[in-house]
Amino acid sequence: MCSLLSSQLRSLEDVSHYLSQVGSMFGVALLEGQKGLNWGVFMKVVVGFLLTTVCCSLLASLFFSQAIFAPTIAEGDAHD
Q1: Residue at 14 is within a domain
Q2: How many domains, in total, are found in the chain?
Q3: Each residue's pLDDT tens digit in the chain (80 positions)?
Q4: What angle (nearest 5°) sits at the alpha carbon of residue 9, between those of residues 7 and 12?
């Protein structure tokens, strides 16, 4: 999901732009009242943002733990 989002949005600037666009569209829709907002689309966007955050966090923790717990060769243990 993270790679799908990043491939579609292409850069962090695009992500920021996308978030501000979505937020402003929902804000304007709420000004029209609760009937102006499509709650199904709103919930899909919220769930998508939450899942993206969770997936990216898990992926980052996986890479971090791989780097931390990688085997190393100590100075005295090296075979010549």
Answers
A1: yes
A2: 1
A3: 555 555 555 555 556 677 778 888 888 888 888 888 888 888 888 888 888 889 889 999 999 998 888 777 776 665 65
A4: 110
Classified as helix, coil or strand, 1 is: coil
Any domain includes 25? yes
DSSP-derived secondary structure for 15-29: HHHHHHHHHHHHHHH
Residue 13 located in a structural domain? yes
Q: Is 69 inside any structural domain? A: no
Look-up of token digits 């709103």: 42
Phi/psi of residue 32, nearest 5 degrees: -85, 0
Report the C-alpha gap between 63 and 15 in whole angstroms: 22
51 and 1 Cβ atoms separated by less than 8 Å: yes
Q: What is the pTM of this model?
A: 0.57
Give me the domain span that covers residue 45: 2-63
